[in-house]
Amino acid sequence: MTAAVVVPVFNAAQETRRCLDALALKLDKDSAGVIVIDDASTDPAVATVLAELPSEWVAVRNEQNLGFVATANLGMALAGRADVILLNSDTEVSTGWLEAMLDCAASDARIASVTPLTNHGEIASVPEFCRPNRWPNDPDRWARAARESGPATYPDIPTAVGFCMYLRRAAIDEIGGFDELAFGRGYGEENDWCCRASAAGWRHVLCDHAFVAHEGGASFGPLGLKPGGEAMDTLLARHPDYMARVRAFIKADPFAARRRQIAACYQQLAS
Fold this sequence. Notes:
By secondary structure, the chain is α/β, with parallel strands linked by helices. It is 41% helix and 18% strand.
């Protein structure tokens, strides 16, 4: 399996450089290419960062700001027939991240989305569940702990988390991309997509052999795209049981034992 990595960018030049440098260093042969889309950044430093991209990557600049949802959909289209990994520009990938995510996706043809572990990703967070853990000093150590602490379990989750999200092309073909009209400039689009996919019989899973650091609040974050408001109203109007399913997952916390296992291995690797 291969996947194209799509990185939407809006300002946050420092975080974007960190993201793209790590991606260039830790992208393996399983990649179907990298597509970086500048959504009409107003920070001139972003152009300097993107001018240094590897020559084989695809770089696109929107003439006007389209917002995250439309930019992500553009990336899906530019990826052709490949599966897609949407990667926020305030992330830092770790060693083996892509191979692990693709192995996870390959475990079941009905997996629509894969989310890696992270420090700041709600239900995907380690070591503290549903909390914004601090930025890790060594993302690779978390990745190693995830791999060496035990066999992957790939637990089902009610929704992917958008900081780093694998989407299977077959699922995109069946249910379409993100809904630009309903979710405008962002927030809720990935949850809506996952609910639509679930209704069509697809699965969403957590890849517990991959780790991607996530800062949160950078790039598209300053535009005020946050939980609540009209986007949440739209999401719940379409999927009234969404919050109940998420709350049930959090209450059951089926990943708790595995999370403790990974955290313990992380501490052992530090000693």
